[in-house]
Specification:
alpha+beta, 7 strands, about 15% helix, 4 helices
Length: about 160
């Protein structure tokens, strides 16, 4: 459904999960869960340098940059933008980004098929799909130019 964006006015999250789903192509497929202390778990799928479950620790600065970058996308409740309920033009074959914010008294989530043109979300800079780059995940997710190579060698 449609939800209003609560953004930075919301209660600070205790934990955030961020998931990038498959696309028709070499989009990295992975999920990350990180708590307010910087303890994180990465789960790598396809088109990433490192597959499987790996723990990591983010510095306070990295964690703050990540939480601040995704904050403007936080809905008040649950927001889902898929092909069936897209408020604007849509194209297929794009990945979805799924983010869940868990606070002491509430949980909010965004499930956004990036092929769905949601102008209010697309206008936010920097973008949501690259927000993971604020965390120390480069050695796990790898580089865009190597996506097909990662998949051919099995991760």
């Amino acid at each position: 459904g449609c939800a209003t964006t609560s953004g930075t006015n919301a209660e600070p999250p205790r934990e955030v999960s961020f998931e990038a789903t498959p696309c028709f192509g070499s989009c990295p497929v992975f999920s990350v869960t990180i708590d307010a202390d910087g303890h994180g778990v990465y789960e790598g799928g396809r088109f990433v340098k490192t597959r499987g479950r790996h723990e990591f620790t983010a510095s306070r600065a990295e964690m703050r940059r990540f939480f601040d970058r995704i904050a403007p996308f936080r809905p008040n409740g649950v927001a889902t933008y898929q092909m069936g309920n897209c408020p604007g033009p849509a194209h297929t074959d794009a990945p979805s980004i799924k983010v869940r914010w868990i606070s002491a008294t509430r949980a909010d989530s965004l499930d956004w098929d990036l092929g769905c043109q949601v102008e209010a979300l697309k206008a936010i800079e920097p973008n949501l799909e690259q927000a993971w780059q604020e965390l120390p995940l480069d050695d796990l997710v790898g580089r865009a130019e190597n996506r097909f190579e990662y998949d051919q060698r099995g991760g």
